[in-house]
Design a protein that fits this description.
Elements lengths: L16 H9 L1 H13 L2 E2 H4 L5 H14 L2 E6 L2 E6 L1 H7 L3 H10 L1
Antiparallel strand pairs: 1-3, 2-3
Helix pairs in contact: 1-4
Protein name: DNA-binding transcriptional ArsR family regulator
Keywords: DNA-binding
GO molecular function: DNA binding; DNA-binding transcription factor activity
Length: 104
């Protein structure tokens, strides 16, 4: 049996505001984060069903590396969720403010 994929995530205290804001500044990634906020944990395919796999991987990796999203493997699926608690611990209200501003 093949080993499960392991993803590296920054620790909560390593999440930086510039990286979070950069990750949220791109419209496609912001739309992905909005879907995660609305739906909870989703399969990565559901974040961009019409995107090429390489584009989807690039954007979800950037969300993971910035500390915005948590990624875990489950079988052949790649499940993604928001790190809302970690982001609120580091930067209270920032995620909610960005999401509220994106609704306008």
């Amino acid at each position: 049996m093949a080993p499960s994929r392991a993803y590296i995530h920054p620790e909560t205290d390593e999440i930086s505001l510039p990286r979070v804001l950069f990750a949220l500044s791109e419209p496609l990634r912001l739309a992905m984060v909005q879907k995660l906020a609305a739906d909870g944990e989703v399969d990565s395919i559901d974040l961009g069903p019409d995107l090429p796999r390489s584009t989807l991987t690039h954007h979800t990796s950037l969300l993971r590396e910035s500390g915005v999203a948590f990624v875990r493997a489950e079988g052949r699926k790649c499940l993604i969720s928001l790190r809302r608690d970690d982001l609120n611990a580091r930067f209270p209200g920032v995620l909610d403010s960005v999401l509220a501003g994106a609704q306008e």
